[in-house]
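The protein record reproduced below.
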Amino acid sequence: MITGLCASLVGGVIGRLLRARRTATQTEAGQTVFFQVGANLPDEGPRYSLGRVRAGGRFQWKPRWSRTRLRELPKDLRYIRARRATFREVLWVPTKALVIECESSAVPVRLWAYPQQAVHVVEMIRRASGPNSSSAPVPDVSS
């Protein structure tokens, strides 16, 4: 049992490293890369719906599965701030991910993205929101 647990932990770490290397290689080669981004409407509970965003283009979140609770996000997202996950959010957000808080004309929206990708996601949201975007700083990924 302990051997199986150790093997799954090692396999998870190796898989994550290989995915990161593959993403970097695809980016350098000019291929399309998708960032994993979770989305949540705070009024609908604490759970995040997993989705993805195409890197480099305009911000357009697509759900990962067709049965996902959250099907689409409001079109007029505006970036507010990025922060670490709170103690309550740790159950629904990956360990090292940043929570990106946004607002729209309809409802507030929270997204999560991995730190290296959060900068790109925030820039895509700012480009999509136009000249009225927030002057809040881009997330610091150094820590």
